[in-house]
Recover the amino acids of this structure.
């Protein structure tokens, strides 16, 4: 019974971490590129270099969080 409880806790944690990954992808990657594509900006022009750097950083964070979630699920017990 203890393994079942630990497995469910691991699954819940992995789901939470994967949710953070999805949020990071949406907020830090997709949103800035959609805004740039549509010409929506805050009046300051920093150039596409900084936009690309920032969005790639958020993309790496999202993939790292997803990888962490998969690692958490790898620890499930029978």
């Amino acid at each position: 019974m203890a393994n079942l409880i630990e497995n469910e806790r691991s699954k819940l944690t992995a789901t939470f971490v994967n949710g953070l990954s999805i949020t990071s992808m949406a907020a830090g990657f997709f949103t800035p590129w959609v805004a740039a594509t549509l010409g929506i900006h805050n009046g300051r022009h920093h150039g596409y270099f900084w936009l690309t750097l920032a969005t790639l950083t958020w993309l790496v964070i999202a993939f790292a969080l997803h990888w962490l979630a998969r690692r958490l699920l790898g620890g499930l017990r029978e």
Residues 2-74 form one domain. The first helix runs from residue 2 to 38. The two ends are 10 Å apart (CA to CA). The CA atoms of residues 33 and 52 lie 9 Å apart.
